[in-house]
Amino acid sequence: MKQIDWLFFDVGSTLVNEEKAYQDRIKQALADTNISYAAFYQTMIHYFMENKKGDVEALKYYGLRCPSWKSDLETLYPGCKHVLKTLHSHYKIGIIANQLPNLQARLRTFGIDSWIDLVISSADVGLAKPDFAIFELTFQQANCLAEHAVMIGDRLDNDILPAKQLGMQTIWIRQGFSHLNHITNPAEAPDWTVDNLTEILEILG
Hints:
The chain is of the alpha/beta class. It is 40% helix and 15% strand.
């Protein structure tokens, strides 16, 4: 393992459980239609298993608008605070996430902001993963080399692939719908794979 100075986390389905927000989005989209929740859900799962953004693809398939995302329905995954607190005693911790505005305030509401040293959110910087530019901006602000950083996220396309291409070490966390994804080429293969946040401590703790 190379020297590690910074750990960078994604947010959705990495630190926070988005299950209720997904359920709400589906229910909003299906209101006033004759499409059943079960039928939509199966279509969504089909697309996630093809490594696509299942909810967005299912909305397109049925010709439905994409309802607003209710981030207030998100909850921290079990062990999140303990993991961040423990890791923060050894590393600097940052966020690289495609998120709605006011991410910093939401992290404060969750009670985890004191263990996070840098927040780079797409809504604030006008860049989004998997664009290399959002990662390069992060390295610049963190004064950190890619090879001394670890990217931890649930998305192979947005988190693992670009991070690897830039020279970061990577941890794929198979939470949320990402447990349906599968590695299709060696460029996506993470350095480590875990099924929950607590397992990260076995690697980095």
